[in-house]
Amino acid sequence: MVMGRPRSFDTDKALDEAMEVFWRHGYDGASLAMLTKAMGIKPPSLYAAFGSKEGLLKAALDRYAQRRSEHMRFVLAGETAHDVAERFLSSIAESHTDPANPPGCLLVQGGLACGAGSENIPFELAARRAQSEMELRERFVRAREDGDLPADADPVALARFLSTVASGMGVLASSGADREALREVARVSLRAFAKGEDA
């Protein structure tokens, strides 16, 4: 069996660089020249390692998912449904305005505008966002079973609500909204999880 030549670049570092390019410029706006320059490789190496620009995006999204999985473990560990929602939205306000990263969210920014030949990219990103929504839904089902949420609470609607607010916060951040503006959105949104006289 003939072994292929080993890659001459750090895959994780290259994916981090590609992730930032997709994050800042979106899928269509991220040219191969921009990507290969940021990654420090030549186009043949990109194709050999990832198959295509779309393959590179999916690999970068897998890398991004590692960050999100850590975030969601923290979120879902909240003791109550309100705690879960607060952790989710508050951490988004922090991460979307973190100066160490591009503003907003890769899963929103990456596919806001896609033209001919990349029509499936928004669906790929939506599928990735749906993972967090599903995890929230399952957590709210448990909260309702435990009596933490009212019996008539709708876990599907609550999870979709949080997911929609999160996407909106990403758009606001990418448009220049600061951390306090996103925190205010989070505070108002959390009223959906208030009980009785706190509502």
Structure description:
The chain is mainly alpha-helical and 199 residues long. Helix content is 67%, strand content 0%. It has helices at 11-29, 32-39, 43-50, 53-76, 81-95, 106-109, 121-145, 155-174, 179-189. The protein is elongated. Residues 1-6 have low confidence and may be disordered.
Secondary-structure-based class equals mainly alpha
How can the largest sheet be summarized? none
> How large, in whole angstroms, is the Cα Rg?
19 Å
Order of helices and strands: HHHHHHHHH
Helix content: 55-70%
In short:
The protein has 199 residues and is mostly helical. The protein has helices at 11-29, 32-39, 43-50, 53-76, 81-95, 106-109, 121-145, 155-174, 179-189. The protein is elongated, with a radius of gyration of 19 Å.
Q: What would the keywords be for this entry?
A:
199 residues, 9 helices, 0% strand
Secondary-structure blueprint:
Elements: H1 11-29, H2 32-39, H3 43-50, H4 53-76, H5 81-95, H6 106-109, H7 121-145, H8 155-174, H9 179-189
Helix pairs in contact: 1-2, 1-4, 3-4, 4-5, 4-7, 5-8, 5-9, 7-8, 8-9
